[in-house]
Specification:
The chain has 7 helices and 10 strands. It is α/β, with parallel strands linked by helices. The chain has a single domain, classed as Rossmann fold (3-Layer(aba) Sandwich). The strands form 2 sheets. Strands 1-10-9-6-2-3-5 form a 7-stranded parallel sheet, with helices on one face. The mean pLDDT is about 95. It binds 2-phosphoglycolic acid (PGA). The site of 2-phosphoglycolic acid has 6 residues, from loops.
Length: about 240
């Protein structure tokens, strides 16, 4: 695990965008695993700026997002499909047919998860997976659990995640209780992983991920076992590390 600490979140995001851009420059037909949440927003802004300047050509890239809320369709303002469309896909020229997000309206979620993993495998696995981390150490929607998950699956969201993500939903609006997510095994098959964590709220999870034992109760700790994982932190997210 290669850990880089930056003075602020903006620089950590710029570094992540550089790694993603480098991947695409090296391999224009890269298969990218993408993430939602607050952390990736400045990364996507940076990628959009690079593409607009002509420094980055995303036209041959294929993308697979980590997760989607169950029961939210593409038009729902809080669906991850909508999030990705608004914050990245509408502003870069990745062909729509190359964009993949689990279908939150799938009638058979288990079948949708099988289909999703099979599609990633058929694409040759992810060249680079971008990750954030939850305050509880989740990656994707892989919540703390007794064992690491293997394949994509339908997960019940933890109380902490429901609390943390409430801010994205209108006050009083119902919030999904389940999501489809790539499993830990699916994520670990990515050839390269770039995890970005910013803000003091992530400091304890970051410490557990880097310094703690590999433990399914802190799902991100599995990244210690990945061959090519890069962790980009701002100073606040790195503040609980004992070794720097
Ligand atoms: P955040 O979420 O980027 O909104 O903090 C990260 C995550 O839960 O994986």
């Amino acid at each position: 695990m290669n850990v880089c600490i930056y003075p602020n979140a903006e620089l950590a995001a710029a570094a992540a965008a550089i790694l993603i851009a480098g991947q695409v420059i090296d391999k224009p037909r890269s298969v990218l695993g993408l993430a939602t949440g607050s952390t990736p927003l400045p990364i996507y802004r940076e990628l959009i700026a690079m593409a607009r300047r002509g420094a980055l050509d995303l036209r041959q890239v294929t993308t697979y997002n980590l997760d989607e809320y169950m029961g939210l369709g593409p038009d729902h303002p809080c669906s991850y499909r909508r999030f990705m469309w608004e914050n990245l896909f509408s502003q870069v020229d990745i062909p729509a047919g190359n964009i993949h997000i689990p279908d939150g309206l799938a009638r058979d979620p288990a079948e949708e998860c099988r289909r999703y993993d099979a599609a990633i495998a058929a694409a040759g696995q992810l060249d680079l997976q971008l990750l954030g981390i939850g305050a509880n150490g989740h990656i994707g929607f892989n919540e703390p659990a007794e064992r690491f998950t293997t394949h994509s699956y339908c997960v019940a969201l933890s109380a902490q995640t429901l609390r943390d993500n409430r801010r994205f939903f209108e006050e009083g609006a119902p919030m999904p209780t389940h999501a489809l997510t790539m499993g830990i095994g699916s994520i670990m098959q990515a050839k390269r992983i770039v995890l970005v964590a910013t803000g003091a709220g992530k400091a304890q999870a970051v410490r557990g991920m880097i310094e703690g034992p590999v433990d399914p109760m802190l799902p991100a700790s599995i990244l210690q076992m990945h061959r090519h994982a890069t962790v980009l932190l701002d100073a606040a997210a790195a503040s609980a590390l004992t070794v720097r």
